[in-house]
Amino acid sequence: KAMKEFTAHLEKLAELLLDLLCENLGLEKGYLKKAFYGSQGPSFGTKVSNYPPCPQPELIKGLRAHTDAGGIILLFQDDKVSGLQLLKDGQWIDVPPMRHSIVINLGDQLEVITNGKYKSVMHRVIAQTDGNRMSLASFYNPGSDAVIYPAPALVEKEKETSEVYPKFVFEDYMKLYAGLKFQAKEPRFEAMKAMEPTVNLGPIATV
């Protein structure tokens, strides 16, 4: 019961954050939620992870470096045991444990829809010698049949002749991502560009 209530609040928080991103980008309120909608609405799920201590962390990679495939990620991480790092300016930066806090991460779909104004974040989890690390990661993602593409208003604002990012169906991206999760995201975007002629780009659903 507690978990159900917790995740319901997180889903509302994710939608509030998406609207704040819209405001910052000059997009109409609700645009990002609509872009995630598909025929059944956005998807939302939570993953609980346990990272046990490792006596020789230098011998393993932990959770290898990657960007998340989806939309916005809300991470309720351990308040005592560290391990999460993000890549900034070529350096791995620790994300310290903070009590009663939620770490916000952005995935590949928001990078595409914002035409690169927001970037998906490369991150990893390194093994620790002491203490179990627990985390609850909630993912607010597009529906499986949602068509993802750069917001036209952001492309027009820059007066670009063509979008930098591809158009694709989210489910197709996830199939590609499954085998390439721990590789660079740019080749994934390029691979989806090659599939663009098969994408039926319809209007964004209204909710």
UniProtKB/TrEMBL annotation:
It holds the Pfam family 2OG-FeII_Oxy. InterPro entries: IPNS-like_FE2OG_OXY (IPR044861), IPNS-like_sf (IPR027443), Oxoglu/Fe-dep_dioxygenase_dom (IPR005123), Plant_2OG-oxidoreductases (IPR050295). It comes from the Eukaryota. Keywords: Iron, Metal-binding, Oxidoreductase. One of its GO terms (molecular function) is metal ion binding. SUPFAM superfamilies: Clavaminate synthase-like. Residues 42-142 form the Fe2OG dioxygenase domain. Belongs to the iron/ascorbate-dependent oxidoreductase family. This is Fe2OG dioxygenase domain-containing protein. It comes from Vitis vinifera.
